[in-house]
Design brief:
- It is built from ten helices and no strands.
- It is mostly helical.
- The chain has two domains: 2-60, lambda repressor-like DNA-binding domains (434 Repressor (Amino-terminal Domain), Orthogonal Bundle); 78-139, 434 Repressor (Amino-terminal Domain) (Orthogonal Bundle).
- Helix 2 crosses helix 3 (28-35) and helix 7 (96-102) crosses helix 8 (107-114).
- The longest helix is centred in the middle third of the chain and has 14 residues, at 78-91.
- 29% of the residues are buried.
Length: 149
Amino acid sequence: MLEQRLENLRDERDLLKKDVAKDIGVVESVYSEWENGKLSIPTKRIYELSNYFEVNIDYMLGISDNRVHLKTNNDININLVSARLKEIRKALKLTMRDLADKFNTTSSAISNYENSKYLILSSFLIELCKYSNYSIDWVLGRTNDKFLR
């Protein structure tokens, strides 16, 4: 779904892959692998791409069919992301270990995300939001709407 959405968003603007790659500062082969689903897009780049295309991340990634025009001029606030991740975990009534086990990661990784040591990996963020029905845009501070629509 991500692959088709990225291609459609690019086509709507009559852009080539090389145009998007240049505009966001990556080499064309990397962008091409993102669009073809062969390479995971880092969280920071997901944020940048959604701003570039001026759409909500949940739509861009194919998690929601609800397309919202959304663009922010801010960078990712890792402290806000960390707080929101902790809020989701607590709402799910899971310990760090429980969450780690559920998503095949380590409790130290969860701790690092919740304590602002590292920005959450996109693959984990996507799976967590699909599971919990929270919006990736909310987690990353692009909207105040918590839940997927």
